[in-house]
Design brief:
Structural class: alpha+beta
Number of strands: 10
Oligomer: single chain
Strand content: 25-35%
CATH superfamily: Aminohydrolase, N-terminal nucleophile (Ntn) domain
Radius of gyration: 17 Å
CATH architecture: 4-Layer Sandwich
Largest sheet: 5 strands, antiparallel
Shape: globular
């Protein structure tokens, strides 16, 4: 009893309950996906629907640098704060070393911050999962960060409430070296499987290449669905 009242106390069975609650918040969020193709990363998400809301005023996919993007599931406020943190780290790297930050280094910075807030009383874990994707000197990379600060690299992955269904589609359809159009089609199929109400109007999809991010328009999505 009361082992979930502070982040720094383990329960008798070796669990940090506040971190587990944060993971549940990620699972409650709308579905987000990422997959690696031959020369790019494709990120996609279903935006939460809110009556009378201006959908352009909130985002699930963010550009960090011109070679890196992030898609989130869970708390949009927590995602926004971590994206701003990541942007600062990316710019500091450019100013200090004269080159863009690698995707793995950027992800480690985010994970370190997530892990930091599991070490002190009086704070709570970030209730958001992130997929960080981009292109650097090592090629295309896709990483997941979750509330504990764990970092895992993936070829394709899904987070959010429809993740289990979406991952089954990705497991069946993913192939190494996929072309851009085939990757977008697979991502759209996985999103629609994970979220029954997914349409071109409430989905976001971007393709991250070395020279920048391209947003897939609603018209392009409808052609590929």
């Amino acid at each position: 009893m009361a082992y979930d009242r502070t982040i720094v106390v383990f329960s008798p069975d070796g669990r940090l309950l506040q971190v587990e609650y944060a993971r549940q918040m990620v699972k409650n969020g709308s579905t987000s996906l990422g997959l690696k193709i031959s020369d790019a990363i494709i990120l996609g998400a279903v935006k939460p629907s809110m009556p009378l809301a201006v959908t352009e005023s909130y985002k699930k996919i963010h550009e960090v640098d011109n070679h890196t993007g992030i898609v989130s599931s869970g708390s949009l406020a927590d995602a926004r704060e971590l994206v701003e943190y990541a942007r600062v780290k990316a710019q500091v790297n450019r100013v200090t070393y004269g080159e863009p930050i690698s995707v793995s280094s950027l992800t480690k910075q985010i994970c370190d911050r997530k892990h930091l807030v599991t070490q002190y009383a009086g704070v709570r874990p970030y209730g958001v999962g992130l997929l960080v994707g981009g292109i650097d000197e090592n090629g295309a990379s896709l990483f997941e960060t979750e509330p504990s600060g764990t970092m895992i690299e993936w070829k394709a992955h899904a987070i959010g409430r429809g993740a289990d269904k979406a991952k089954k589609v990705l497991n069946r359809g993913y192939k190494d070296g996929m072309k851009t159009e085939d990757g977008i089609k697979l991502l759209l199929k996985a999103l629609k499987t994970g979220e029954k109400n997914a349409t071109a109007d409430n989905m976001e999809i971007v393709v991250v290449r070395k020279d920048g991010m391209k947003t897939i328009s609603k018209e392009e999505m409808k052609k590929l669905m």
